[in-house]
Predict the structure.
Amino acid sequence: MKPSRTFALTGRTVLVTGAASGIGAATSRALDAAGANVVLVDLHQVPLDELATSLGSRTLPVAADVTDGAAMESVVAAAVARFGSLDVCFANAGIAAASPTTIPSSSVEEFERIIEVDLLGVWRTVRACLPEITKAGGHVLVTSSVYAFFNGTGNAPYAMSKAGVESFGRSLRGELAGTGTTAGVLYPGWVSTPIIKASRQGHPAAQKLIRLANPGPFGTPVTPERIARAVVQGIEDRSARIICPRRWAPVSAARGVVNILGDVVVDRSRRMQSLIRQLDK
Ligand SMILES: NC(=O)c1ccc[n+]([C@@H]2O[C@H](COP(=O)([O-])OP(=O)(O)OC[C@H]3O[C@@H](n4cnc5c(N)ncnc54)[C@H](O)[C@@H]3O)[C@@H](O)[C@H]2O)c1
């Protein structure tokens, strides 16, 4: 079966993880405006209830941890009981290190928790949603990052997870090809949300490294509303990839060369190496 070229969201049910803040909250608002029923998932009930109240009756706010597969299955069951089906899953919840640090200086707990949430949380969310989404001929969208193709120095567990999420989303799209159900990957650049606070206001060496590695407009954060608009459009188009802002699209397209050049710069730049040493605790 050929997937429909456009997938209007009116009347569809969309599950959003990480819905209480940033990209998830902005996207939940945009999905609601597009006429979708929105299942709002995040760690704590109160902010979800507040968002649901501001949106109206076509929402279901449910607190759950994306690393808990059984809890995610219960959320899906609640969504189907309330709205009759589940058409789209936006596996978006994520965390970053409290402060950028090098691999040998990382705490085991934090390193592994980032992978648990950012990579395994996506897998467990999608695994719980997929039976209903395939029944509906719907769409799965997973949040990766430009960190999937960016050198992850100082942020290794995050970069590892985001590269893994990209690979997961692409694998899923390939496996679903021709079935009528689709999957895509979202690659946000820098976005002004709480998750970037540690990189932007934390260790001065990390801030300098980020400025060196993200020259000019690449380092300028965009609003979560801009990502939300791209997400709604990308779901309606069943896009394989959503790169936002678009200035990152040529970098992604040329990543074979860009990656090699980026690694050479780190190998040779005494300035960068001295900043990286300052991230060793
Ligand atoms: N902000 C950026 O610059 C940027 C860039 C690229 C990718 N991303 C990705 O976008 C996604 C959304 O991030 P954001 O920028 O909106 O950050 P954010 O901190 O505003 O929102 C993340 C949300 O995820 C929730 N969350 C964390 N752990 C969870 C768990 N175990 N179970 C359920 N919910 C959990 C948090 O409570 C929070 O509400 C993340 O995957 C992030 O890695 C963000």
